[in-house]
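Consortium newsletter contribution from the modelling node. Members have asked for a concrete example of what our holo predictions look like. Here is one, prepared for the nicotinamide-adenine-dinucleotide complex that several groups have been discussing at recent meetings.
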Amino acid sequence: MLVIVRRCVQGATSRIRAVAVLVTGVGYIGAALATSLLDDGVQVVGLENGYCTPLAALDPLRTSPEFTLIEGDVANPTDVARAMEAVLALSADPPVVYHLAAQPSAAIAVRDPDYTERANLVGARVVLQAAKEHGLTVVFGGSFRVYGDEVTGQTITEDTPYGRIGDLAHLSKLYVEQLARTIGGLFVSVRLGVVYGLGPVIKTDPPFMTVPNVFTSRAIRGEILEVFDDRPVGFIHLEDAVQALLVAADFAEPSDPWQVVNAVTEVVTIGQVAQHVQRVGQAHNTFVRVNGASSEPATFSVESRLPDSGFTQSRSMGEALGAVWDYFAAGPAEPSA
Ligand SMILES: NC(=O)c1ccc[n+]([C@@H]2O[C@H](COP(=O)([O-])OP(=O)(O)OC[C@H]3O[C@@H](n4cnc5c(N)ncnc54)[C@H](O)[C@@H]3O)[C@@H](O)[C@H]2O)c1
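And here is the predicted structure:
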């Protein structure tokens, strides 16, 4: 189901105008974003500490002379200052900062709350303050989970209030959004749905994987897909997530510096994700068993301002999971975080 609804059209808008950008957290989404920007001739400075993306995974990006990797921690003001200086030196126009560095896993947040707080809270504060000091726009990797898990039957707009959130990794998204409001620099939170699909960095360690990728890899190993909580979830393909982040920079508005946009292109229940994987299995002559998928799926709707800035959905789960199947069937060498 296409759920992004065009609420008003304000005319065509361009993609990013900056000739240099800073990407904090060059992981699953950040590496795909960096690749897309480099393909468009934009110079990219990446700030990454290797927490859950081995730095060797960034070697393909490092072959580009337009890519600079700063090995460092977003919670360390000296590292952030080095990264900001590096990107400011590249461009007379104010660069955009894509702040994606975080500990994103709810499960790991339970095991390691200290690291999660340091990366997600302290790191965000350091980045937001440094960006404000230099007058730079921050596009933040926010989460659709800020609306909480009890959204069935509702239509979610950017004006829908925050909901109840039970884990630190996602709770930190509210903190960052509200901190940005307090600090007062140019800020756009892109409230991303669960991201799936293939990119330059693929996670194979389950706590860092999202459900479409996890189900596909399990199905290939011959495991039954167990659906324990068959609720609807907002999803977006990695390519569309990158596009959403890019066009989100256009929402930066000095007269109204705090902006949020929803970035969800499909609402799919966990059971339906399993059934998508089952169909991909059939196409590959593999029987995939699914337990617990509801026969009456619940849903919700999402409205977004993203199409106002030229965003259109390009990928859907039904067609995109075939490539994910092929990737995991080919067997990534070793599990990597
Ligand atoms: N993947 C999703 O489904 C999804 C959905 C909504 C929001 N988001 C958010 O988007 C952002 C990127 O997500 P992702 O899926 O690419 O996750 P990811 O874990 O692949 O990327 C985050 C990167 O940040 C790095 N990092 C962690 N701590 C750091 C630190 N202190 N200093 C520097 N780098 C650090 C990690 O090593 C990793 O490479 C995260 O903030 C995440 O919460 C992701």
